[in-house]
Amino acid sequence: MVRLDMMPQTRHQKQTAFTLIELLVVISII
Predict the structure, then answer these.
(1) What is the 3-state secondary structure (H, E, C) of the chain?
(2) What whole-number distance in Å separates Cα of residue 14 and Cα of residue 10?
(3) Measured CA angle at 1 (ends 27, 28), to 5 deg
(4) What are the pLDDT digits (tens) for 1-30?
C-alpha cells in the first residue's frame, strides 16, 4: 500500500489492475 502512494497516479491505475489480476490468480489457485 505504501508503494502505491509513492508511485504516480498513472502507475497507480496500473497497480490496481495488477492487484485485481493477482486476486484472480490467488482465487484460481485456491
Answers:
(1) CHHHHHCCHHHHHHHHHHHHHHHHHHHHHC
(2) 7
(3) 5
(4) 455 555 565 555 667 778 888 888 889 987
Q: Is 15 left (phi over 0), alpha (psi -120 to 50) or beta?
A: alpha
Cell of 23: 486476486
Is the separation of the CB atoms in 7 and 15 below 8 Å?
yes
* 1-30 CB burial, b ≥16 within 10 A, e <16: eeeeeeeeeeeeeeeeeeeeeeeeeeeeee
Is the pTM for the entire model greater than 0.70?
A: no
